[in-house]
Design goal:
Strand order of the largest sheet: 6-5-14-16
Strand content: 15-25%
Shape: globular
Oligomer: single chain
Structural class: alpha/beta
Number of helices: 28
Largest sheet: 4 strands, antiparallel
Distance between the termini: 56 Å
Length: about 900
């Protein structure tokens, strides 16, 4: 069979992607007899490109999908994308800015149309990248979080929760992004350490009898101060409680109050209370009935409350405020102070706590059943340690702010009648006010993107309708995702699934680590350490990229990724291609018949035994989501057992030809069986390469590998005796090869090998397998005999065998002795110098540890090298050591 000498990934990947889709191989069949297996894809943002984290999670999903499909399951891996409210709106607003326009210039309706146009033009990029990765999803069921069906589900959930009192609207303090101009949930706020200052400000009493020193990191917010608070048990201030102090720069009297939330040990033990700009102050203000004075607006600029500082940016206002405090003698001191400050997860802008009307979900009643479900084992976390993280967050949960001040997204289904104050929350748009018949205006806000994502496992299957897909595929079997969205997504899906389907959304949750750079650092554009998956796929091939990700995916651990590692897995793909090419060229167009056990050679029994063990190991590893173990087991079997050993060991059988046709036919049959099994077991990890090779196997009705049967352990093929015997054979071969290398015998020269076995079993093994040994070590003859003690020969021992390679006539003995003596002298000199250094206490104490360790390694290598040279000299001297 003519097969190209080199595997070219780019020539096969697009071809097989198109072929699989054309044949509808990945389309689920709800009316079929197969047992269902369902996963929903973690929907990527419609704005984005696949990043390396996507490649990890979708590779692991695809491994599971292809494996279960080959096991005979009716697999539904459901694809889709997320509308990504903030991110998508930001992209389109940036485009508008290039035209000198804002969304307000277009108006809401025209702007939303513009975003839909952008989505039609660019939203398919990430889908095409998923196809290129080989994702075996059911594209006929692709969903989008803003499509009609999912939008109807979102409205239905909102209305039902509202009617049950689990969704409410209130004036509350929220995390506000001044750049995105929207509220953010706690989870969308990233707290980062920021170097700042702690300012000590004097608040004088109204009557001039005393003053209180207050410590603050944000002096610009003092224009919103409505009180100074101290701890009720703090003796320093007990007589000040109930009195008034003057607000610096504004000279407005404000009360001194006592509240237990104050930390007596922080700063001076007295804090300013700014309810409109600090979450803790907001709660304290409500407890004490204090007003909310807004000093900073939604663009992070000062309001009229700041007097002539109105309109200044908050940071510029801070500098001006400090200057004025110092000028009036009210600034008592300043010291450096690093503290955690919230930033918008999307744009990185420092958030501003602001009070506004927002919509919230009461989380506690939804969290309780979700906690109980994991405690009962209805949903299992893998690794189990992540359940602790889940519990910790769920048991300390806050109400969820679900409204966003955006135009792109699911608009909140609430309408207001301004004349009579009626609020209407409904699944269908109302025609008018039920109270007075007047006009209604819809709430301007949209829902947090994660609200629709929380419904993903059942909304994508057709809920709220009672669909065939929903009945068959919910609950889904497994969710594979990173630990960083346990709170964002996993927990919320658990709560909503239990609330609206009365069942958990997935039986198991496999948590993988995050992909980091080679030094273990988080990847970011600012650091310049991001990795472009498309570039890697172009350089190494998609299969090599996928195999790398699977092998590195130890559960729960972060993955330090050096792109160069993929070079080794590309080499593996080439190794499998070349080995398969060797096999296929010896199989021809007509497949050999099935092998019979009585005709199997020792090496045939060995490879079938090793294969059976590996098939069992891979199945167990995949059941436990140990993708790393499964991929690693296959890698070592294919590279080591199959390519490096069996193909070489079986060459004499293949060469038997007319002299022993039954032997050659058995070898061909075993080769085909092993290759066929390897391709099936490797397919979930390297789908393109394996499909390409599968189609080249002899036979006319093979079908697609993507839907071939998964290999199962036959049990009876395990043969410990054959494994032990071939293990001895391998040690013999390795030792003989090492002896040739140590004595610098020309690799192309055939030599005589003499082996003295320790027992009859060893003698029988060498006698029966001498031809294989000879072919693997380039020997003219391999014979069992007692070794002549004084003969010039390279000698060694390997598990019960003494080995000798006679050197007379093979080497110029005197010339080689002289060369080795010179080399030994050089080694001795280097060894002496390094020994002196390692014996020097001063060096051991003063040198860095890594330098000392390196010296010890080099010293050990020299000792080993000296031993090898001495052995070779002894061999060249008839066994006498120099």
């Amino acid at each position: 069979m003519e097969i190209p000498k080199e595997y070219l990934p780019h020539e096969s990947e697009d071809r097989w992607t198109a072929a699989w889709e054309s044949a509808a191989l990945f389309r689920a069949d709800p009316g079929g007899a197969k047992a269902p297996f369902c996963m929903v894809i973690p929907p990527p943002n419609v704005t984005g490109n696949l990043h390396i984290g996507h490649v990890l999670v979708y590779t692991l999903h695809d491994v599971v999908a292809r494996w279960r499909r080959m096991q005979g399951r009716d697999v539904l891996w459901l694809p889709g994308t997320d509308h990504a409210g903030i991110a998508t709106q930001m992209v389109v607003e940036r485009e508008l800015a290039k035209e000198g326009k804002s969304r307000h210039d277009l108006g809401r309706e025209a702007f939303v149309e513009r975003v839909w146009e952008w989505k039609k033009r660019y939203g398919g990029r990430i889908v095409e990248q998923l196809r290129r990765l080989g994702a075996s999803v059911d594209w006929s069921r692709e969903r989008f979080t803003l499509d009609d069906g999912l939008s109807r589900a979102v409205r239905s959930v909102f209305v039902r929760l509202y009617q049950q009192g689990l969704i409410y609207r209130d004036r509350y303090i929220v995390n506000w992004c001044p750049r995105c101009h929207t509220a953010l949930s706690d989870l969308e706020t990233v707290h980062e350490p920021v170097p700042g200052k702690l300012y000590l400000v004097r608040y004088p009493s109204a009557d001039g009898s005393f003053s209180i020193a207050v410590a603050t990191t944000r002096p610009e917010t003092m224009f919103g101060d409505v009180a100074v608070a101290v701890h009720p048990d703090d003796e320093r201030y007990r007589d000040r409680v109930g009195k008034q102090v003057l607000l610096p720069l504004a000279d407005r009297p404000i009360p001194v109050i006592a509240d237990a939330f104050v930390e007596r040990e922080f700063g001076t033990g007295a804090v300013k209370i700014t309810p409109a700009h600090d979450p803790n102050d907001f709660e304290a203000g409500r407890r004490h009935g204090l007003p909310e004075v807004v000093a900073i607006d939604t663009s992070a600029r000062m309001t009229a409350e700041a007097g002539d500082l109105a309109g200044l940016d908050r940071f510029e206002a801070r500098a001006r405020t400090v200057e004025r405090l110092e000028a009036r003698g009210l600034l008592l001191g300043v010291r450096e102070h690093e503290h955690a400050v919230g930033h918008c997860q999307r744009c990185g802008t420092m958030i501003e706590p602001l009070v506004s009307h927002q919509w919230f979900v009461k989380i506690a009643p939804l969290a309780e059943p979700a906690i109980a479900a994991v405690e009962r084992g209805d949903t299992r976390f893998v690794p189990e340690t992540w359940a602790k993280t889940y519990f910790e967050w769920m048991r300390n949960i806050h109400d969820w702010c679900i409204s966003r001040q955006l135009w792109w997204g699911h608009r909140i289904p609430a309408w207001y009648c301004d004349p009579c104050g009626t609020v209407v929350v409904a699944e269908s748009d109302p025609e008018g006010c039920e109270g007075c018949g007047g006009p209604l205006r819809q709430d301007d806000d949209v829902l947090d993107t994660w609200f629709s994502s929380a419904l993903w496992p059942f909304s994508t299957l057709g809920w709220p309708d009672d669909t065939e897909d929903l009945r068959r595929y919910y609950p889904t079997d497994v969710l594979i995702t990173g630990f960083d969205i346990i709170f964002f997504w996993v927990a919320r899906m658990m709560m909503m699934g239990l609330k609206f389907r009365d069942e958990v959304p997935f039986r198991e949750v496999y948590i993988h680590g995050l992909v980091r750079d080679a030094r273990g650092q988080k990847m970011s554009k600012s650091k310049g350490n991001t990795i472009d998956p498309q570039e890697l796929q172009g350089r190494y091939g998609t299969d090599a990229v996928r195999l790398t990700m699977a092998i590195l995916a130890a559960p729960g651990n972060d993955i330090p990724l050096a792109p160069e590692r993929m070079e080794g897995y590309r080499a593996f793909c080439n190794k499998l291609w070349n080995a398969s090419r060797f096999v296929l060229m010896r199989l021809g167009d007509a497949p050999p018949g099935a092998w019979s056990r009585e005709r199997l050679s020792l090496v045939d029994r060995w490879i079938l035994s090793r294969l059976d063990r590996v098939v069992g190991d891979v199945a167990r590893a995949l059941e436990e989501y140990r993708f790393d173990r499964a991929a690693d087991a296959l890698y070592h079997f294919v590279w080591g057992d199959f390519c490096d050993w069996y193909i070489e060991l079986v060459k004499p059988d293949l060469a038997a030809g007319d002299a022993d046709p039954a032997r050659a036919e058995t070898a061909r049959a075993v080769l085909l069986d092993v290759l066929s099994t390897v391709l099936r077991a490797m397919h979930p990890f390297v789908p393109f390469l394996t499909e390409e090779l599968w189609q080249k196997l002899p036979g006319d009705s093979r079908g697609y590998l993507a839907v071939a049967s998964w290999p199962v352990s036959r049990g009876g093929d395990v043969d410990p005796e054959a494994e032990s015997a071939v293990g001895m054979l391998q040690e013999l071969v390795v030792k003989i090869r090492n002896l040739r290398a140590e004595t610098r015998i020309d690799p192309a020269r055939a030599v005589e090998v003499v082996i003295a076995p320790a027992d009859e079993a060893g003698r029988r093994l060498v006698g029966e397998e001498s031809a294989r040994i000879a072919s693997l070590v380039r020997a003219s003859t391999v014979r069992c005999a007692a070794l002549e003690p004084g003969a010039v020969a390279a000698r060694g021992v390997a598990r019960g065998f003494e080995i000798a390679i006679p050197l007379e006539g093979v080497l110029d003995i005197e010339l080689e002795r002289a060369r080795l003596a010179k080399e030994l002298s050089k080694i001795e000199s280097e060894l002496e110098a390094r020994s002196r250094k390692l014996d020097n206490p001063s060096f051991l104490e003063r040198a860095p540890r890594e330098v000392v360790d390196k010296e010890r390694v080099l010293h050990g290598e020299l000792l080993e090298k000296r031993s090898g040279v001495r052995r070779t000299l002894a061999a060249l001297s008839g066994g006498q050591a120099p």
